[in-house]
Amino acid sequence: MSTTALRQAWAEWRSFADGLDLSDGSPDCAVLHARLFRLSGTVPLRASALRAAREEARSAFGPWLEEKGAAGPNSLEQLRIALAACEPGWRALVGGPGRGGAVRAHLERVALSAGLAWPAGPFWASPLHVAGQRFDFLRTFRGRDHAASLALLGALLRVLDHPRGAPLFEWARETSVLRRPAEALHASALFRDAYEAGALLPEWLAPLGWGPLAESLVRLCEDVALRFLACLNEPLPAPALPTAPRARRPAPHRLPVPETLPIEPWFREVPGCEPFLRAAAEEPLEDDHRLALADWLEERGLDDRAQFIRLQCELERLPEHPLARRLLAERATALFEANVAAWTAGLPRQDRIRWAETSNFRRGLLEHLTFEHAPELVLIASEAINVRGLRTALYGPNCPVEQAGAKGLLARPSSPSLVSLDLVSAYEADLPPLVNSPVLAGLVHLGLIGHQVTASGARALAEAFRLPAMSSLSFLSGPGADELCSAAAGSMARNLRRLR
Questions:
Q1: How far is CA 341 from CA 297, 358, 383, 487, in A?
Q2: What pLDDT band is residue 451 in, cutting at 50, 70 and 90?
Q3: Which of 92, 221, 371, 437 would be 82's cystine partner, CB 3.0–4.6 Å?
């Protein structure tokens, strides 16, 4: 069964977790959530969810690690008992689907959260495979004596002929070596299920050459459980005490919000969400309002939109590295594609407004749009949603003079709420009005697409860093690029985080 160290770790965790007050509003909720977060768990910071996670882990691991009797009679029975505890225990600690869900993806998370790393060489090599050749019966029996061949053939046929034995037989035929932790954990589940169904008996392990593997899988489950408990039992580092009292960090900036806030049609069908959306509009750079909205939506059964908000918020915090962002981006895209029809239903239908694009959703909300120069489309969009990001041209072939250039942009109803602005076309004369206008005082990102910066343009853009929240600038290299970079590196760029 379990090792002495594993039992001791479980007793330590029980003593700590059972002493926590997980009632609503208790500070102990944050303590438990912080420890679970270190395992990359997905348990939300809500008392009810934290209580459920604690109880699920206790009901899963308790019978296994608190049992006083002898260990199971054989390695398969030990594996059955260990996995019967570990699977629900892992789900409680790191999240994941129930049995029959995305098993491989979940087991990959379990292995990564446990910090498993194999020693040099494979974890296990199958005795049923011949190196460099496909699996078949003749090659498998080659080199064995008659009695061993009959015993092996009998065991294989019994596995194959059993109604529940096909998954295990296919695994044995396709798997020549186990190199990754997730593969071994998946094999553990197959062995456990086959044993419970009667498709694998202890006496067949020796002819199949699986005896050492079954024992190793038991130790693997114990190792994962011990690693998790060791991580949970490690106290959180105490925060460093400040040398002097620090003032409460102000919000990056606040934006004016109209009395009648444009709300996505999907949210109009969710009564009670407007305070969250208004808070997000007033402080558009703060994730707290959006994450609070996600928790609120989840409590009302709107799990997909809640998870989409959390995933996009987490993506914004990650560095622009493809490997770091890939998994989150794939999950967010899958959620978006499954729900895009519902999330964009009720929006004005215009051929030149492409609502159903994931790039229009920033940190979970529909707030960014791409337009040609078409003031009437901007007006339509501004009445439907709260536009906080815009990619547009300042000039168009049939644009009236009074609606073109910086003057036309600043007159648009959506301009005071902008935090991100990418201009496809602009002239030097447009830059000073843009960066000096109080209408764009909340701008965080400014991009000049297809525009080379000259020396005079560089001086005008350098003024943009005087804006209280400006931290990102993109432009094409030109004669003024060096001057602008020097300005960005100076005192005017104290908020600069990104320069392209």
A1: 18, 12, 20, 46
A2: low
A3: 221
